[in-house]
Amino acid sequence: MQTTLRPMPPFDFAKSLAFIDGFRPISGDQKITAHQLTKAVRIEGQTIGFEVKAVGTLEAPELQVTLHATCEISPQIQAAALDRIAFFLSIADDLRPFYALADEPFQPIVEQLYGYHQVKFLTPFENAVWAILTTRQQMSVASKIKARLTAAFGGKININGQEYLAFPSPTDILQAPPDELQQIIGNERRVMYVLAAAQAFAGVDETFLRTGTVDEVRKWLLNIKGIGAWSASFILIRALGRMEILDVPEARLIEAAARRYGAGLDAVAVLNLAARYGAYRGYWALYVRAGGS
């Protein structure tokens, strides 16, 4: 099945691909070429492969999307898959008001990253599991555990002779044998947290997570065992696109902002700089981290 998605301009798919290629939490989960992404996702118990190819221009962007499955794709699954892809690539984000707010030190970053829409985790559950696995654990170890979870409990599909693995859905994890989860994750408490996240995300309407008030969604996330304040903010921004928030800045953002705005910045100063950008403060932080060196 093939269709076309039309992102909000400006949209530079090459910048999206460059980010995905260097994003360690999903390293190896897809194939990237100069203008195309091939990846897989679990939707309602079915593994859907998708190819996304840029066919438009920066100011008139179009994405050609091809869906693959081992059985017929129902209209419901098709709509859910396209929505997932569109949200993953943040194609509906209107960056023009954000760019109009740029102060002088930030303008070179806008020029550098012009058309870059945030790439999210493919699903909020995947982001939650990654947050749990990386809490007090080396990222390299977390990456190996995540890969083993995907291979054991996710889906797989062959596209043009290459196999693609999809990260397990919450239901996949809930149906997994507990002893196998324990063997892969290797920590009883983390197993409990992953199961708690699976139970929570299996029972929530994602529309609420995307559109409910930030306070409501944050409260819901904090009610999941294993999700603390930092993880909740991480999921709000990186899985749900809630770019209107910026909590206590991490060291990397402070350092990047200092290189752009001048030495001596602290967390409070960074928050004050971000305040100028209102509902786009999360985008400001994203751009500063990506282009602030």
Short description:
With 293 residues, the protein is an alpha+beta fold. It is built from 15 helices and seven strands.
Task: Give a verbal description of the structure.
- The protein is of the alpha+beta class.
- It folds into three domains: 2-96, DNA-3-methyladenine glycosylase AlkA, N-terminal domain (TATA-Binding Protein, 2-Layer Sandwich); 124-238, Endonuclease III, domain 1, CATH 1.10.340; 251-291, no CATH class.
- The protein has helices at 13-22, 75-88, 96-100, 107-113, 124-134, 139-153, 170-174, 178-185, 188-202, 206-211, 214-222, 229-238, 251-261, 267-275, 281-291, and strands at residues 2-5, 31-32, 36-43, 46-54, 63-68, 155-159, 162-166.
- A hairpin with a 3-residue loop joins strand 2 and strand 3.
- The protein is globular.
- 37% of the residues are buried.
- The mean pLDDT is 96.
Give the tags:
293 residues, TATA-Binding Protein, Endonuclease III, domain 1, 3 domains, two-stranded antiparallel sheet, 15 helices, 7 strands
* Strand order across the largest sheet: 1-5-4-3-2
Give the total of beta strands. Answer: 7
- Computed Rg: 19 Å
What is the number of domains?
3
What is the CATH domain class of the largest domain?
Mainly Alpha
